[in-house]
TrEMBL record:
It comes from Vitis rotundifolia. Belongs to the oxygen-dependent FAD-linked oxidoreductase family. Keywords: FAD, Flavoprotein, Glycoprotein, Signal. This is FAD-binding PCMH-type domain-containing protein. One of its GO terms (molecular function) is FAD binding. Pfam families: BBE (PF08031), FAD_binding_4 (PF01565). Residues 1-176 form the FAD-binding PCMH-type domain. PROSITE patterns: FAD_PCMH (PS51387). The lineage of its organism: Eukaryota, Viridiplantae, Streptophyta, Embryophyta, Tracheophyta. Its cofactor is FAD. The keyword Glycoprotein applies.
Length: 451
């Protein structure tokens, strides 16, 4: 994208400032980009081609927890870390099912879905939203009642950027035990990663929903010091080690999970990576440099022969990681059209391909993009088809884009719209046509208005 610098970066202190920012930008013919945590995979919250302003919600970070109702209001500019920390300071037995990276902003994360380590038990972050306050394209402040159920449906997984500026969210907090367990079992190819990864595909989506076991595939050295691939079986269990081990011995004995692979901690500590939980209040973005992500969904286990080929492509570029997040559990119980996020029953797991680099210049970029494209291409026969599904929170501009002005036809946008939303895409476009017919809130992958 040929991006220009923003004319202004507006940092509202309250909702009236956001209203004014929307109305003035519209009157002046300026585009608007809304930034909460700034983690967008394609930088669409702070880059644009034409003259534009950034509405940066960095000052809207308040979290108000109600223990009486097990709910909270959280402003969009808060990070997940701030949210988790504030919940934990009020209660050791309440939590919220959202992503693992504490510096992600609530605004982009909730409006795009938001998956994490409790997704199998409680669904996505967006499945646990009860109300929201937003500013629409006319500068009007709306809540759930005044925005209509259609718009409230759209902002819970359809992406906020197409519909307005979401100021705050009322969320349902969920029970967590005072002690949870984290386990890590790393297995290289030489240690049987292929067989275990093959089995995992059939087991992980069916495990008890208190267990979330993902696979993180990285480069490693084998015992001879040669490059190999490593699958890290990384799990969160909502209970103690003593309760977990017998469950795993029955469900996945081949992994050989033992107490030495696990440690107990509080739910909030699982996000602090061994540091004091105060670190969750630190907003600085931990990714330095550049990155590219892509995603896939798998509904049939990949055969061992397919995995063998995958390792080869994975190792060739030495340029990225893959994360496999299991679905099943609560995710299978929610209908495909209950929210815009359609990847529900029948999905075994989500794959994320993620490549990051710090070196500037085209050569580094070429190497990392090539790795991402090669592995994505290799996976084609093994992942969902017609459409090949993708997760909006792992936004991928390669799927297709609107023109430089952010305009496109409904059918053209359907190319990527179907991947993110399947049959919900049309309803999103109809909602867009009703609430923002002039397409004021638009970007390279926004929903086009359908009248
Ligand atoms: C290191 C890293 C780890 C991640 N881990 C996970 C994970 O575990 N689970 C997961 O589901 N995702 C994960 N993500 C993806 C993340 O959820 C999305 O990138 C999300 O959109 C980021 O939200 P943000 O507010 O930080 O981003 P931003 O860049 O601020 O916004 C993202 C998009 O949402 C729009 N937006 C932001 N705020 C608002 C608002 N208030 N109103 C309307 N529109 C708004 C922006 O305009 C932009 O289009 C991760 C991303 C990174 C970089």
């Amino acid at each position: 994208m040929n991006s220009s610098s923003p004319q202004f970066i507006i940092t509202p202190q309250n909702e009236a400032h956001v209203q004014a920012a929307v109305i003035c930008s519209r009157n002046l013919g300026l585009g608007v980009r809304v930034r909460s945590g700034g983690h967008d995979y394609e930088g669409l919250s702070y880059k644009a081609a034409g003259p534009f302003v950034i509405i940066d919600l960095v000052n809207l970070t308040k979290v108000s927890v109600s223990l009486d109702t097990s709910t909270a209001w959280v402003e969009s500019g808060a990070t997940l870390g701030e949210l988790y920390y504030q919940i934990a300071t009020r209660s050791s037995t309440l939590g919220f099912p959202a992503g693992v990276c504490p510096t992600i902003g609530v605004g982009g994360h909730f409006s795009g879905g938001g998956q994490g380590t409790m997704t199998r038990k409680y669904g996505l972050a967006s499945d646990n939203v009860l109300d929201a306050i937003m500013v629409d394209a006319n500068g009007t402040i709306l809540d759930r009642e005044s925005m209509s159920e259609d718009l409230f449906w759209a902002i819970r997984g359809g992406g906020g950027a197409s519909f307005g500026v979401i100021l705050s969210w009322k969320i349902k907090l969920v029970p967590v035990p005072p002690i949870v367990t984290i386990c890590n079992v790393p297995k290289t190819l030489e240690q049987g990663a292929t067989k275990l990864a093959h089995l995992w595909q059939q087991i992980a989506p069916k495990l008890h929903e208190d267990i979330n076991m993902r696979v993180i595939i990285t480069l490693a050295n084998n015992t001879k010091g040669e490059k190999t691939a490593q699958a890290l079986f990384n799990s969160l269990y909502l209970g103690t080690i003593q309760q977990l081990i017998p469950l795993m011995n029955v469900s996945f004995p081949e992994l050989g999970l033992a107490a030495k692979d696990c440690h107990e901690l509080s739910w909030v500590q699982t996000f602090a990576e061994g540091e004091s939980v105060k670190v969750l209040m630190n907003r600085s973005h931990e990714i330095k440099g550049y990155f590219k992500g892509k995603s896939d969904y798998v509904n049939q286990p990949i055969p061992e022969s397919g995995l063998e080929g995958m390792w080869k492509v994975f190792l060739e570029g030495e340029a990225g990681v893959m994360i496999w997040d299991p679905y099943g559990g609560k995710m299978s119980e929610i209908a495909e059209d209950e929210t815009p996020f359609p990847h529900r029953a029948g999905i075994l797991y989500n794959i994320q391909y993620f490549s990051k680099w710090e070196e500037a210049g085209v050569e580094a970029q070429r190497k990392h993009m090539e790795w991402t494209n090669n592995i994505y291409k290799y996976m084609t026969p093994f992942v969902s088809k017609s459409p090949r599904r993708a997760f909006l929170n792992y936004k991928d501009i390669d799927l297709g884009r609107n023109d430089e002005n952010g305009n496109t036809s409904f059918s053209q946008a359907g190319v990527w719209g179907q991947s993110y939303f399947k049959n919900n895409f049309k309803r999103l476009a109809l909602v867009k046509g009703r609430v923002d017919p002039s397409n004021f809130f638009r970007d390279e992958q926004s929903i086009p208005p359908l009248m």
